[in-house]
Amino acid sequence: MKQPLILFLCFCAFSFAEAQGKYFTRTGHISFYSKTPLEDIQANNRQVASVIDFSTGEMVFSVLMKSFEFPKALMQEHFNENYIESDKYPKSTFKGKILNIQTVDVQKNGSYPVEVEGELTIHGVTKPVKSNGTLEVKENKIYGKSQFTVAVADYNIQIPKLVRDNIAKNIDIQVDMVYEPFKQ
Amino acid sequence: MKTPVILSIVGVVILVGIAVAFSLYNKPHRQAGNAAPDLKVKATELYAMYTADESKADSLYLDKVLQVEGIVKEILTNENGDKVLMLESPELFGISCSMADSQSKDLSAVKVGAPVTVKGICHGMLMDVVLVKCVLVER
């Protein structure tokens, strides 16, 4: 329940500091894929909130687990009620830092490879993660992309035996954001 | 004499089981469009409730079909081409209404700065209060 507060505080800090250098989105896209020989499952969340502060390299992502859309309503129900327990753990967050932020020039169009390190919280469990991605600066927007893998077991997510072969042990996560400058 | 009766009962049970499993597996996603709203609330009031006490607001609004009335602040298009209406609040953030697929194409009636009424499913709060599968309600 603290995550919106953190996001909110980020923004409060922004409004006092120079607005320059802060980018955000409220319609970011995170998808995940579970691939097994029995079944491929994909889910999309297009209501991801994220903020990057280019003066410090800090970045925050926040998602509502209920907003992941599955091809089948039943899958979505199982995901929310049985696996991720979204009533108990409604949000997942990532809080981290772009390690090579000094190489990114938001004033100059171009594609910048970035290295991100931080803490990912899913299902109430927080683990350190490290991932590579790209930030593409284009006409005052920043297109952020990254891919990484999480192990279901790391986040204490219990999958019933019956469907264990249908759900991958490692889930591929794809992050696709379009950031805009933050203006008050 | 009994065997065919039992066999046919077993057969019927299996068929019903398959039918039920199939319809469960293919059951449609929840939509806000054809549902009567559980609650009607003003956008400013909804946002104020969430910023004041998130867990209390969740207990009132989470997963409910809300009919929300407010002023359109911004019309956004996400990278998938879907429309998102931002409803105004006195603060920086407000209510984000991701429109249902059926509505995403024609929002010509919606004007920035004008009042609008939408119906959608409440998913909770990030920076904004998030409503999904929203449809416009005739005013």
TrEMBL record, chain A:
<feature type="domain" description="Lipid/polyisoprenoid-binding YceI-like">
    <location>
        <begin position="46"/>
        <end position="178"/>
    </location>
</feature>
<keyword id="KW-0732">Signal</keyword>
<feature type="signal peptide">
    <location>
        <begin position="1"/>
        <end position="19"/>
    </location>
</feature>
<dbReference type="InterPro" id="IPR007372">
    <property type="entry name" value="Lipid/polyisoprenoid-bd_YceI"/>
</dbReference>
<dbReference type="InterPro" id="IPR036761">
    <property type="entry name" value="TTHA0802/YceI-like_sf"/>
</dbReference>
<dbReference type="Pfam" id="PF04264">
    <property type="entry name" value="YceI"/>
</dbReference>
<protein>
    <submittedName>
        <fullName>YceI family protein</fullName>
    </submittedName>
</protein>
UniProtKB/TrEMBL annotation, chain B:
<keyword id="KW-0812">Transmembrane</keyword>
<protein>
    <recommendedName>
        <fullName>tRNA_anti-like</fullName>
    </recommendedName>
</protein>
<keyword id="KW-0472">Membrane</keyword>
<dbReference type="Pfam" id="PF12869">
    <property type="entry name" value="tRNA_anti-like"/>
</dbReference>
<feature type="transmembrane region" description="Helical">
    <location>
        <begin position="6"/>
        <end position="25"/>
    </location>
</feature>
<keyword id="KW-1133">Transmembrane helix</keyword>
<dbReference type="InterPro" id="IPR024422">
    <property type="entry name" value="Protein_unknown_function_OB"/>
</dbReference>
